[in-house]
Amino acid sequence: xxxxxxxxxxxxxxxxxxxxxxxxxxxxxxxxxxxxxxxxxxxxxxxxxxxxxxxxxxxxxxxxxxxxxxxxxxxxxxxxxxxxxxxxxxxxxxxxxxxxxxxxxxxxxxxxxxxxxxxxxxxxxxxxxxxxxxxxxxxxxxxxxxxxxxxxxxxxxxxxxxxxxxxxxxxxxxxxxxxxxxxxxxxxxxxxxxxxxxxxxxxxxxxxxxxxxxxxxxxxxxxxxxxxxxxxxxxxxxxxxxxxxxxxxxxxxxxxxxxxxxxxxxxxxxxxxxxxxxxxxxxxxxxxxxxxxxxxxxxxxxxxxxxxxxxxxxxxxxxxxxxxxxxxxxxxxxxxxxxxxxxxxxxxxxxxxxxxxxxxxxxxxxxxxxxxxxxxxxxxxxxxxxxxxxxxxxxxxxxxxxxxxxxxxxxxxxxxxxxxxxxxxxxxxxxxxxxxxxxxxxxxxxxxxxxxxxxxxxxxxxxxxxxxxxxxxxxxxxxxxxxxxxxxxxxxxxxxxxxxxxxxxxxxxxxxxxxxxxxxxxxxxxxxxxxxxxxxxxxxxxxxxxxxxxxxxxxxxxxxxxxxxxxxxxxxxxxxxxxxxxxxxxxxxxxxxxxxxxxxxxxxxxxxxxxxxxxxxxxxxxxxxxxxxxxxxxxxxxxxxxxxxxxxxxxxxxxxxxxxxxxxxxxxxxxxxxxxxxxxxxxxxxxxxxxxxxxxxxxxxxxxxxxxxxxxxxxxxxxxxxxxxxxxxxxxxxxxxxxxxxxxxxxxxxxxxxxxxxxxxxxxxxxxxxxxxxxxxxxxxxxxxxxxxxxxxxxxxxxxxxxxxxxxxxxxxxxxxxxxxxxxxxxxxxxxxxxxxxxxxxxxxxxxxxxxxxxxxxxxxxxxxxxxxxxxxxxxxxxxxxxxxxxxxxxxxxxxxxxxxxxxxxxxxxxxxxxxxxxxxxxxxxxxxxxxxxxxxxxxxxxxxxxxxxxxxxxxxxxxxxxxxxxxxxxxxxxxxxxx
Length: 980
Hints:
Among the domains are: about 1-155, no CATH class; about 565-650, no CATH class; about 855-940, no CATH class. Helices cover about 35% and strands about 10% of the residues. The longest helix has about 30 residues, at about 125-155. The strands form eight sheets. Strands 12-11-10-18-21-20-22 form a seven-stranded mixed sheet, with helices on both faces. Strands 5-7-6 form a three-stranded antiparallel sheet. Strands 13-14-15 form a three-stranded antiparallel sheet. It is an alpha/beta fold. The protein is globular and about 110 Å long.
């Protein structure tokens, strides 16, 4: 019998040589003897070569051939036979018996076999079995190999595969474990979710040779003060469930008498012991909700949201719909009258922790211990690098402090805790826990516009700020549980890389007071809740211990795109050194101001030319009022920047590339969309810097708050939200604790990766370190409920309103634009905590009333804003040449119909002006306008959602309606006649 070979043969025996033929070798005729000999020799060499290092692989496989056509064998046979050849496992080859068949059932081969002896005994079924079995074997081999390689790479994170992103991990496994332990002891992990991949196998946190003692009873005990302790009933049920599970496992394995089911584990088990206060979940439907009163009730002062339960109803990865998620959130918050659906026990997500002080020793940690923990919090590297015994003591003290701050009766007033404010937030109310400050941070660069204006109004309209009490009074005396959140608006006055001069604070205040969009928030009514802070990049980065050495690095990095400034780091060092040495910096600034003034004179002509070109409509496009106002705002910004100190001219530029990238990139759909791209990149860093230094929540300025955040403040973990369909973070909403271990890890990873704080890159940091559980990725339904619809997801069951694109918020389609006026704020994504409209800075919230409309108290700023609109429109559409004289007479521009005039002649200015002066060149002209005769016909008939929300917030400040919880704003004790 010839030996089976995966290589085809032209003869049945090696000694046989086909006869030579002198006839032509037509297609399909057998090869000549010479050709056959050459082919045979080639195959013989191939057989010899197959006995190399891979010969064992060749012994495992054997070719199976499937005929495709019928061919002849001679010159007149009509063509050769064509076949498909597949390598299959030799044991499954159709010519061999199946492994489970006996030797007597072997297939018998005929002596007169065909020249392809591997086809003997083949059948369609046997061929299919051979191919499927071979594919299954290969798949198993590949899967096992990937598991082995993955495990090896997990144990050696510094080794990277080709064509993959390098690991961003900078902490050792023992340090990552300590990060987890410290965050859990701090109460920052109030979750029952497991920690997959985290090896809590080093007692006392590891980090030293003495930390490798065997755990007690083969299990590691990890106490979590963020979870409610188990009652005796819970323990009894847990023992019953455990016994039942063990009984079923013994029955399935056929084990009798309680024998061991398996060999003991190499890794010690993790026993998470909840030691926090008990939770009392709020019954549904909510008592005192919308079914009992016309307005929604405020959440209880200590109410918290169980985000584990929220994930069960809202997680996009589990196929949950935004529409259903918002209904569950509405029902738990009492935002509407729920329809009858039966028992709502599975929908409970809100709980109130008990104030019983259980588990807290008398007096709690000493002041010395508190000071020590605060010192370590300022430099978390000392905690991660401490010895095992020192770390164990620190964790125990941190846990004890967490339990004591959760509500000890000895430290309460009328049943509510009292805290001493932290120096970073000295204006906090007594009921505010300094470990979990209620701070909203917004970062804004450039002139204040309607975008941060509307975001601030939404904060006033939704949060518990006690604005219904008289101005100047202390509402915490009557309500000891009151903890008012504050909104800190961080203003970056110049370019992102400029270093503010010593007078920047005063200049910022003056600019805010002159800006009609920001001036209202300087009123004493909002002094305790809205605070403007000056952003100083040098000061902020110097205040973060993990950012040491940032001056020597390329400062700006966003997703790998690096922006640098050649002289910025040196300039910052020199400026700081001169300040430390006591030099007269103010004198230098005065000299620099003089030089800048000379430059400003040359710059004025360029600004004027640009302004005239804009007024003439050369840019064009979009709403005329918005275009003209943007031109004026841009001109004023350029003029202000030109007159500043020389520091403001030190603008960072992108690193050299093939093309010269401009710092100010033109993006979006409008020709007026020039903005400091570097400031956008800086904001990616600023959100982590602010939350790490001060705690609280960072919000992008294009975010509108939609409900009270008390339930999120009382959930003490860190979170961002999901990047739509991707399992990445979007940090438009970012909550982190001051000086947290997870913040330390993010900063160390960013420093090691070029200071890249882009959310996509931060997602890699947490994934590579396996700490994603410590920065919870919440569903975007809570903060960005339209995002999935705009990316063509869940359009079969969209929420209300239904946005197919983000522009629908500003330019609502006609088929759905009846809802904004008919439903108003109450019908806008009810249940969500906020709405992120994703930029669109160039589109006004309210094109028909693109000015702050806050009533007589703030009419001076309103007149300025409306006057600027009129001046810009008149400049874009100049009147007839006969009416341009200053001495002309007429009724002037019509305030009721912006853009139109009752007569072609503007009014004569009251004070005398120079020759060629036009109305509106001086903002004092705007004070003469009277807007009291506005008519409803002058307004837009259909309002967008953006306009409806802005007008709702403004009506609350004017005192024409209450906020969403039925509370009216109080203007008592306001100084009559003051204008802001």
